[in-house]
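Title: Prediction job returns without error message
Component: structure pipeline
Severity: low
Priority: P3
Assignee: unassigned

Description:
Job completed but the reporter wants confirmation the result is attached to the right record. Sequence as submitted:
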Amino acid sequence: MKAAFGNVGSLLTPLLALLLAAATGAPLRAQTANEEYQVKAAFLFHFAQLVEWPPEAMKGEGEPMRVCTLGEDPFRGALETTLKGKKVGERALRVDHIKQIEEAKACQILFVSRNEAKRMPAVLAQLGSSPVLIVGESEGFAREGGIIGFSVEDQKIRFEINLDAARRAGIRVSSRLLLLAKSVTGSQG
């Protein structure tokens, strides 16, 4: 599925904020944990727009794109609020909070919080080359096999991209997203 911008009016301001932050070297700031997760939720929405999944990653036509969290939800409702009513292309976004790694194969995006970092080897083993965009926030997440890893530096939210992990999952990352990343490892292939 090609990444597409649906509902351009509602995207313009957040996307411009992301682009401006990247261009000025001043990533979005998060003052509190609640604000941190609001910003991360906005990033997840934009990741969904700037990534291309293989056709088999999407279920039937009209089915929503699933954005999942593993374990306890660190967003505490911010993810649902941010994604409510949003679409990527023709697909509505749906948030699911899963407890078992096996459930992640039905997701297009999986967020692994720092509280679930100990399960990362099992996540990678279970998902293998499944077309799931694995995003996390633990130290070294992208270097350890995740596709996108968040970090907070001086209250600035940044992210790293592991293109080798994306390629194994059959996911293509837009050059626009690569430009916004703090660092990129591997090759698109």
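Comment from assignee: result matches the submitted record. The CA atoms of residues 160 and 183 lie 5 Å apart.
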